[in-house]
Amino acid sequence: MDFKDSDDEATYRATARRWLDANIAEHEAGHYPDDMAKAKAWQARKAKGGYACITWPREWGGGGGTPIESVIFGQEEARHAVDGGYFTIGLGMCVPTVMAYADDATKTRFVGPAVRGDEIWSQLFSEPAGGSDVAAIRTRAVRDGDDWVVNGQGVDLGRALQRLRDRPRTHQPRRAQASGPDDVLARPEGPGIEIRPIHQMSGGSNFNEVWFTDVRIPDTQRLGPIDGGWKVALFTLMNERLAIGTGAASAPRTS
Q1: Angle CA 43–46–50, to nearest 5
Q2: CB within 8 Å of 168: residues ≥ 6 apart
Q3: The 3-state secondary structure of 20-39, one letter per residue
Q4: What is the C-alpha to C-alpha distance for residues 186 and 168, in angstroms, rounded to an integer?
Q5: What DSSP string describes 33-73?
Q6: CA neighbours within 13 Å on the CB side: how many for 39?
Q7: Do 226 and 164 touch, CB atoms closer than 8 A?
Q8: Which of 30, 103, 154, 207 has the most CB atoms less than 10 A away?
Q9: The architecture CATH gives domain 123-228
């Protein structure tokens, strides 16, 4: 098997390398209050240059490129000490799901800011009682007009799974019941949300417990149909495998 670049790939690699060399130098000359600010500045610079989310459509802030171009840029970027870890969950797992299941208004609101690094995502797929067993979620959301009122607890922050209830429970398989939540898009600020850092043995606090107490989330921020969230969650988990395995943002795919 020949792993050498084709002529077009070699041209792209040379262009990406020149862009990286020039922009890394300018980026490193900047002054940032913390690592997160530095990472967000680099993400914004990549987005402006067309190198953030290379395989995503241009209309949503991506580069409109090919998977091999994304791989090539990733290889070249890896030569430099830049931190993209803050964006793995959002761009690799959460936002591709938004692109597949949300309406255009929701995508316009969320996708561009994520690509540019203006907003950082994570996901509330784990709970203290069930760990990462998505089918064991206990967080509940009850319909109230055009909103869902959410109560429960999760680990991390961003997209949350909970069982949505605007009608009596049906006798469905456990996995179908778990989908009843579908995903909803939640923000860290606002009434009813409490964030408690989890202190790890290393001394760091890379995870949080997030408590929802009568948090109101508009129905427009629900992804997928009611009682159809299992499919949405599986879509996210498949993107998670791709993102962790490749270290790159997932290519948006249809549901």
Answers
A1: 140
A2: none
A3: HHHHHHHHHCCCCCCHHHHH
A4: 25
A5: SSHHHHHHHHHHHHHHHT-SSTTS-GGGTS----HHHHHHH
A6: 14
A7: yes
A8: 154
A9: Beta Barrel (2.40)
Residue corresponding to tokens 């060399």: 21
Taking the whole predicted model, whether its pTM rises above 0.90 is answered as no
Q: Do residues 193 and 210 touch, judged by C-beta distance below 8 A? A: yes
Of the chain, the percentage scoring pLDDT greater than 70 comes to 79
Question: Of the listed 69, 76, 127, 240, which one is catalytic?
Answer: 240
Q: Is 240 a catalytic residue?
A: yes
Written as one letter, the residue type at 242 is L
CB under 8 Å to 207, separation ≥6 — which residues? 155, 156, 197, 198, 200
Whether domain 7-116+242-246 has CATH 1.10.540.10: yes
Q: What is the pLDDT of residues 145-162, one digit of tens each?
A: 999 898 888 766 444 554
pLDDT of residue 249: 57
